[in-house]
Amino acid sequence: MTKEIRKNKHEDAVSPVIGVILMVVITVIIAAILAVFAFGIGAPTKAPATNLKYTAVFDSVATTSTLTISHQGGDALILKDEKMTVTFAKNGNDAITAAVPPAVPVALDATSTVWQTIPAVPGLDTLAAGQSIGGPLDLTAITGEILNVQIVDVPTGQIISNTKVVVQ
Fold first, then answer.
1. Quick check: 97 pLDDT over 90?
2. Is the pTM of this model over 0.85?
């Protein structure tokens, strides 16, 4: 007595189809992993960590005010990557241009005709420990005024410094 094993016609292709699908999925996963290594994930970017000192001075004889930022230590600032906003604490007006809010961020890079390194070094593109940068403030920034100074690292969008400065 021979037993005849009957196969269902529809079951013949199930195993090969599932095998092909699994092979495609594995190939895609391997390609994605290789692409990550080939193109690099890249370390997450972070803003420079610095210690900055701010000095705002009103010259009553010349009736001008200046803000000086001194780099006290930490990472060097790449000036082309930084934007600064200076506002009056009392009303939020721009303390550089006297414009009403919102204040316009100022570029600190070497192309700026307003903010210069102290002493002036044409084309200086970084601010390292021991160096300073400064520029004029609005005429209404007189002794006793409180200024909000914020420096933002543009590539990361992170705030490097956010502080209050009293005009001396």
1. no
2. no
